[in-house]
Amino acid sequence: MAYYITKVLVTAVLVVLISEISKRSSFIGAVLASVPLTSVLALLWLYIDTGDIDRASELASSVFWLVIPSLALFVAMPLLLKQGVNFYLSLAVSIGITTTCYWLMIIVLHHYGVDL
Length: 116
Fold this sequence. Notes:
Elements: H1 2-24, H2 26-34, H3 37-50, H4 53-82, H5 87-111
């Protein structure tokens, strides 16, 4: 149980730290947020938990393919905000667009024989 609490605390502290840094410098916050921190932590925790190189490799591969549709959020969100759309509505619409892009990417990859 202590191990799971440690995992949660380490992950949460990093997210809060990035959020606090972003208040002072959006550039530095963006640099830190753009580092695939969540993916690195997921790979690390998966490998520590299982010791399974193949599972870590599969996760890294899947993350690679799914980074592409995730970029839709970072295109849609600023466009909507610049149009004067409310922050929360912009976020919700951007998440919807991103979800659609994930779904489309999975369909396209499956069509070409890539199963995640």
